[in-house]
C-alpha cells in the first residue's frame, strides 16, 4: 500500500483507522495487490479533501474509483475533480462515508455509506448501563447501507 502520511489521521483516530483497514482488507480480499492501493490521509475538512485529491491526481491521473473516509473529504475531492475537468462518475467514481447532509447537495449528489448513528448510540448506552463491562473492550458490528446517488458507475477496469 502506498501511503502519503502528512497528517497521520489514523494514528490517533481508531474510527478512521478502522475505515482505512476495512477498506484495504476488502480490496485485498478481492485480489487487489496492496501495492496498487493508494492512500492519502487528510483532516476531515473540505479543503483537505481537495488537497488530497490534487496529490492523488499528481501521482495517478488514471484512477477510476475513489473511496473517502468521510463525506467532507469526498466533497472536497468532488470540487477538485470539477476544477480539473474530471467528470464524476463518467471518468471517476467517488464514494463518501457517513451520509452527512452535505452529500445530498454536492454536484453531483454524493454516493455514500450511511452509518446508523442512532443504532451506535443505542449500543453505546447499553454498554454503559451494563456495569459488568467496565474497563473491558467490546466489539459490536453495525451494518452500514450504501446510498446510491450520482457519483458511481460500473467498473471500467481493474487494477
Your description of this structure?
The chain has 159 residues and is of the alpha/beta class. It has one domain (2-116): Response regulator (Rossmann fold, 3-Layer(aba) Sandwich), CATH 3.40.50.2300. The chain is built from four helices and six strands, in the order E-H-E-H-E-H-E-E-H-E. The protein has helices at residues 14-29, 46-59, 71-83, 117-129, and strands spanning 2-4, 38-40, 65-67, 93-98, 111-114, 145-147. It has a four-stranded mixed beta sheet, with helices on one face. It has a two-stranded parallel sheet with strand order 1-2. Helix 1 links the parallel strand 1 (2-4) and strand 2 (38-40). Helix 2 crosses helix 3. The two termini are 13 Å apart.
Feature tags:
single chain; 159 residues; alpha/beta; Rossmann fold; four-stranded mixed β-sheet; two-stranded parallel sheet; 4 helices; 6 strands; 14% strand
Topology, element by element:
Blueprint: E1 2-4, H1 14-29, E2 38-40, H2 46-59, E3 65-67, H3 71-83, E4 93-98, E5 111-114, H4 117-129, E6 145-147
Parallel strand pairs: 1-2, 3-4, 4-5
Antiparallel strand pairs: 5-6
Briefly, what is this?
This protein is an alpha/beta fold. The chain contains 4 helices and 6 strands.
What do the pLDDT scores average to? 87
- The CATH topology corresponds to Rossmann fold
CATH class: Alpha Beta
Specify the oligomeric state: single chain
Query: Please, how many domains?
Result: 1
Order of helices and strands: EHEHEHEEHE
CATH architecture, by name, is: 3-Layer(aba) Sandwich
Report the biggest beta sheet as strand number plus sense, adding barrel if it closes: 4 strands, mixed
Shape: globular
What do we call the CATH homologous superfamily? Response regulator
Strand order of the largest sheet: 3-4-5-6
| Count of alpha/pi helices | 4
Residues in helices, as a percent range: 25-40%
Spatial gap, N to C terminus = 13 Å
Please report which band the strand proportion falls in: under 5%, 5-15%, 15-25%, 25-35%, 35-45% or over 45%: 5-15%
